[in-house]
Amino acid sequence: MKFQAVIGLEVHVQLKTDTKIFCGCPTTFGAAPNSQTCPVCLGMPGALPVLNKKVVEFAIRAGLATNCRIAPRSVFARKNYFYPDLPKGYQISQFELPICQEGHLDIEVEGETKRIGITRIHMEEDAGKLVHADVPELGNGSGVDLNRACTPLLEVVSEPDLRSADEAVAYLKKLHQIVVYLGVSDGNMEEGSFRCDANVSVMPVGAGQFGTRAEIKNVNSFRFVKQAIEYEIERQIELIEEGGTVVQETRLFDPGTGQTRSMRGKEEAHDYRYFPDPDLVPLVISDDWVADVRLALPELPEAKRLRYREELGLPDYDAEVLVASRELAEYFEACVAAGAPAKTAANWVMGEVTRALNEAGLEIGACPVAPARLTALLQLIEKGTISGKIAKTVFDEMWSSDKAPEAIVEEKGLVQVSDTGAIEKIIDEIMAANMGQVEEYRGGKEKVFGFFVGQVMRASKGKANPAVVNELLLKKLKG
Amino acid sequence: MELFELTIHELHDKLKKREVSSVEATRALLARIEATEPQVGAFITVTAAEGLAAAEAADRRIAAGEIDLLTGIPVALKDIFVTAGVRTTCGSRILENFVPPYDGTVVARLKAQGAVLLGKLNQDEFAMGSSTESSAFGVTRNPWDPERTPGGSSGGSAACIAARQATATLGTDTGGSIRQPASHCGCVGLKPTYGRVSRYGVIAYASSLDQVGPLTRDVTDAAIMLGAVAGYDPLDSTSVERPVPDYRAALTGKATGLKIGLPREYYREGLDPEVKQALEAAIETFRGLGAEFVEVSLPHTDYAVATYYLIATAEASSNLARYDGVRFGHRTATAEGLLDMFRKSRAEGFGAEVKRRIMLGTYALSSGYYDAYYLKAQKVRTLIMQDFSRAFESVDLLLTPVAPTPAFKIGEKVDDPLQMYLSDIFTIPVNLAGTCGISVPAGFSAAGLPIGLQLVGRPFGEETILRAAHAFEQATAWHQRHAAL
């Protein structure tokens, strides 16, 4: 029997607001335990939550960017369960009336475009965390750090429209790209700012009904999501083929073994006893507010890609690579705005700049060659002052100093030779020294042309203008 | 007249004229507490040293010519209000040693005016009860008859006023917890409109019903206390952004032209004859003052108690989940593992009534029962609200009993929770409707027990009910009688 996987994803996106969702405490990552807490996020008796308006704005942004309907009235609910890092004994979340519903994202897998439904996006608070090891004061016990308690999250729930691990990863990457572009999240997966639960089931191809699903909790890298889903699909198919049945349960992915394992079964499933939080009045969002947020939305990757193609004339590949990261795209656009030709700038940003960043282990934001300085370099190529090849040398120099490219070119005497007399002289010498190859070329072996170009460039120490070299060589070789 | 007998406005006048100092008044009340507390048991914690220090500070402030209505006035608070550095128990073993790191909004507002805090008052555990018998710190006795309860849950606050242990107090009212004990102890108790007073720093019982209000010697004091604590608070999303009127200025002494509704469903069998008689006399008094009476109907009254016990317990089951032994309050000494720690800490920390309500609420919210209980109750709550809005289309306020009987005996209803729950039958609908109500002394039973009457106003109609209550108080002498202690 052939099987078909059915996958739905629940993604938790931590929002990069300055303060928490229901109090004024900061959300800085990595602060000393419990140093960023107050009676509200500690769940102290008598404390009450007050909604952070910025969180709502971010949720509207995310909703609009994923084609959702923004609910004019939404409600916060309490999700009740006991856990030591959950200060109030309930999590404030949204349940029946979330802020965003009925959206979608288009993904591309193997050249095909597919629309993935987004059931809902809702706002909620995070819990704290438990610290079990390496803290001398704790002895054998465990500690609770509530710095993270009450930090704002969006939960983005997809429809079960995904059919493979690759589709799931494509969807996740797309969503990740969008939230980072929107500026609502730093998307840092190591710090847990973007993490995902995957609901996976399998059914015989063509079946009308989905199989029983397992939920894989808290996977925090694209690679692990792919591994976890692929493993889980395999596991479920094997189980069914051996005559077993899949049970509804929560599973954990172990990156060490690449496998998922059972965490808790359905019989232990919680009854969260959701009900509207009486401490928070229903959230009413005016059309005007939504319109304002829509106006202020940044250009999203999709639109950027189109614009690069249509307006800047970049090939699809270049557009795709450049928009993959908002910072990279911003760097590229700054070059174009400073006067760099689009295609040259694209080549350099994707090529030399990216290579140098990778070697230095830096992010584009920390690039020592600012767009204006790179543009000055590209303009030297454009004007014919230096060749593209020489420019690479100049670039390396610019990387480690803050000198202007013109200064480097001057200092090192790298100005390109376009003087036809000088180049002609070199060509004549080389042709004289390599008469055999001249004959071969004239006998129809045109490949030899490259040999002559190389020789001329070497003789000129790379300074000869390649265009002039080509032109003169062609003339002289043809005789 | 002794200093401990004065109202806020009387003491304020003396402080202003420098006839007495706040330290003198505070000493007089502390002495009164010491003398009467063995018989009453109104306090959980007395803060004598802090109180005297605050009184000294108030005297310095008065000497500098800065005097607000509450500057130097000795008050005591129900132990449900969190007070920075002062143990706050909420009447529960689970918070026996809890010292909050912050002041709630109403506490901060009282302190900003220079009020002097004498201590924290007894109450039913987590405000669940109608007799102050469910406190983990012992029962409070009714100063009019030590065999009887003061009512509840703000029984400590009401008894404190009746025993003249503080000039004024604050309580909270979720289903009648201010008005019913005020009625049983012969003082004035006001439950403001939901959202009028901030709940920030008030330990939650049922969030959508809880409201802070004063228990005082007379109506003028109730107006003064309300004026001091009312108003929008950015720390409480449910508090309402609306200017605070000058409540004292509303006390004109007149009731002329007021149209008062008598809800038919409140006057019927089961109402104690002495209570009925007192109400009839009160109606005559109001008529004499120029008020007009009409019969109105609140048709869903019969469902109010059931509705209340579903909504209040549902919210309570969630609000009390934070008492799990992890961060503050009681933690069991003998746990084997995490779940056992949660279970034992809660089993040891909570009393029977609290456990009963948590169980009820958990059941009402659980999947499979939510629609039948919680959701249905919310729908009935809407109908009850509509009853009130409809009634207020034709009248300015309602006059009703506060409690079906005068104060009952200690132990009389503890084993019969349903009977206990019915003692709030006339106050509960006001909380469900979210509107305001006041209890004022309106007579005495043959046994010498106080009887109160309730005036219910429109949402944010505090000025109207205070004016009517004040006019009635001026025309009668009930509030001048004191418990013989």
From TrEMBL, chain A:
Documented EC number(s) = 6.3.5.-
Q: Which SUPFAM superfamilies match?
A: GatB/YqeY motif (SSF89095), Glutamine synthetase/guanido kinase (SSF55931)
User: What residue stretches are annotated with the Asn/Gln amidotransferase domain?
Assistant: 330-477
State if Aminoacyl-tRNA synthetase is listed as a keyword.
no
Q: List the InterPro entries.
A: Asn/Gln-tRNA_amidoTrfase_suB/E (IPR017959), Asn/Gln-tRNA_Trfase_suB/E_cat (IPR006075), Asn/Gln_amidotransferase (IPR018027), Asn/Gln_tRNA_amidoTrase-B-like (IPR003789), GatB (IPR004413), GatB_C_1 (IPR042114), GatB_Yqey_C_2 (IPR023168), Gln-tRNA_amidoTrfase_suB_CS (IPR017958)
Keywords linked to the UniProt accession: ATP-binding, Ligase, Nucleotide-binding, Protein biosynthesis
Q: What class of enzyme is it?
A: ligase
Record Gene3D superfamilies = 1.10.10.410, GatB domain, N-terminal subdomain
Question: Record's Pfam families?
Answer: GatB_N (PF02934), GatB_Yqey (PF02637)
The UniProt catalytic activity note for this protein reads: L-glutamyl-tRNA(Gln) + L-glutamine + ATP + H2O = L-glutaminyl-tRNA(Gln) + L-glutamate + ADP + phosphate + H(+); L-aspartyl-tRNA(Asn) + L-glutamine + ATP + H2O = L-asparaginyl-tRNA(Asn) + L-glutamate + ADP + phosphate + 2 H(+)
Protein's job: Allows the formation of correctly charged Asn-tRNA(Asn) or Gln-tRNA(Gln) through the transamidation of misacylated Asp-tRNA(Asn) or Glu-tRNA(Gln) in organisms which lack either or both of asparaginyl-tRNA or glutaminyl-tRNA synthetases. The reaction takes place in the presence of glutamine and ATP through an activated phospho-Asp-tRNA(Asn) or phospho-Glu-tRNA(Gln).
Q: Which HAMAP family did the record assign?
A: GatB (MF_00121)
Query: Belongs to which family?
Result: Belongs to the GatB/GatE family. GatB subfamily.
Question: How the protein assembles, per its UniProt entry?
Answer: Heterotrimer of A, B and C subunits.
The name of this protein is Aspartyl/glutamyl-tRNA(Asn/Gln) amidotransferase subunit B
Native species: Geotalea uraniireducens
Q: Which gene encodes it?
A: gatB
UniProtKB/TrEMBL annotation, chain B:
Active site as annotated = K78, S153, S177
The UniProt entry, under InterPro entries, shows: Amidase, Amidase_CS, Amidase_dom, AS_sf, GatA
Gene3D superfamilies from the xrefs?
A: Amidase signature (AS) domain
Q: Where is the Amidase domain?
A: 24-466
Ranges for the region named Disordered are 132-157
Main EC class the enzyme belongs to: ligase
Q: Known catalysed reaction(s)?
A: L-glutamyl-tRNA(Gln) + L-glutamine + ATP + H2O = L-glutaminyl-tRNA(Gln) + L-glutamate + ADP + phosphate + H(+)
Documented EC number(s): 6.3.5.7
UniProtKB keywords: ATP-binding, Ligase, Nucleotide-binding, Protein biosynthesis
Subunit architecture: Heterotrimer of A, B and C subunits.
NCBIfam families xref list: gatA
User: What does the UniProt record say this protein does?
Assistant: Allows the formation of correctly charged Gln-tRNA(Gln) through the transamidation of misacylated Glu-tRNA(Gln) in organisms which lack glutaminyl-tRNA synthetase. The reaction takes place in the presence of glutamine and ATP through an activated gamma-phospho-Glu-tRNA(Gln).
Membership in a protein family: Belongs to the amidase family. GatA subfamily.
Identification of the protein by name: Glutamyl-tRNA(Gln) amidotransferase subunit A
Organism equals Geotalea uraniireducens
